[in-house]
Amino acid sequence: QVQLVQSGGGLVQPGGSLRLSCAASGSDFSIYGMGWYRQAPGKQREQVAHITSAGGTNYVDSVKGRFTISRDNAKNTVYLQMDNLNAEDTAVYYCHTVRIRSSLLVDYWGQGTQVTVSS
User: Which of 93, 77, 1 shows the shortest CA–CA distance to 45?
Assistant: First the structure.
């Protein structure tokens, strides 16, 4: 079992910044990729950013150049730095990872955190 505990988020004005954190339990954090997803009201959940175990990153086009995903394996934590936020970034954000259990891929999700961009 993997527990993902998120922190950060809140209300920010357009153009502002926020940083989300996600701390994972377990001793195998460093060998798995981590991702951030978001879900806005009435929309499907979408992957925003992903970081591999080796530190490779990718982003959805709408956040490229504004969001940065990073990880600290010593702290079992993944971060999402969000800059130049706009109203379209308003959503509940979730961190995500997978583990292989009995040859099956199991999804784990954080509890979600609200990000609201509004003046």
Answer: 93
Q: Give me the mean pLDDT over the 33-44 stretch.
A: 96
Please answer whether residues 114 and 10 qualify as being in contact, where contact means their C-beta atoms are separated by less than 8 angstroms: yes
47-101 confidence digits (pLDDT tens):
999 999 999 999 999 999 999 999 999 999 999 999 999 999 999 999 999 999 8
Question: CB neighbours of 106 closer than 8 A, spacing ≥ 6?
Answer: 98, 99, 100
Which has the closest alpha carbon to 2: 32, 37, 47, 41? 32
pLDDT tens by residue, 12-38: 999 999 999 999 998 889 999 999 999
109's tokens: 């999700």
Contacts of 7 (CB under 8 A, 6+ apart): 20, 21, 22, 23, 113
Q: How many CB atoms lie within 10 A of CB 78?
A: 29
> Count H helices, E strands: the chain?
0, 11
